[in-house]
Amino acid sequence: MISKKLQDAINKQINKELYSEYLYLSMAAYLESIGLEGFANFFKVQIQEERFHAMKFFDYVNERGGRVILEAIDRPQIEFKSPVEIFEIAYNHEQYVTKLINELMEVAIKENDHAAKSFLNWYIDEQVEEEASMDKILNQLKMIGGKGQGMLMLDKELAARTFTPPAQ
Ligand code: OFO
Description:
Helix content is about 75%, strand content about 0%. The chain is mostly helical.
C-alpha cells in the first residue's frame, strides 16, 4: 500500500501532467491560428504524451491501493509572440517538470518505498527525452531565425510526428 504522503505527492503530479497537456494544447491552438499546422501537430502529439504520463501515475496510485484526487487545472498562457517563444516556454516547462519528478523521487526515498522508486525511475529517464525533444526544436528554430523557407521545411517535418506510447 502506498503511504498517504506519497499518494498526495503523486496526485499533485497528476495535476501537473494534466496542466502540461493543457499548456501544449494552448500552444497547438495558437500555432494553428497562425497557420503553422505542422508545429501544431507536434504539440497535439505531445498532448498524448502528457496524458500518458498522467494516466501512468493514475493507474499506479490505484494499483498501490491509494485514492486518486483530481484538482482544478490552472489556465494556461493563451497568447505567444512567436514559435521561438513557444519552444523556450516548453523547454523551460520540461525542466520544471524534471525538477518536480526529482522531488517526487525524494519523497519516495524518504518514505523508504522501493517499489515507488523503481516506478519513478521510468519518469526520470522519460524527462531526459522530454527536455531533449524541446531543446532540439528550439535550437533548430534559432538556427533558421524563426522565419523564411526554413520554417516551412520544419513545419513539414513536424507534421509527420505521430504518437507512439513511450516504452514501459
Ligand atoms: Fe512533458 O513530461 Fe510530462 O509533464
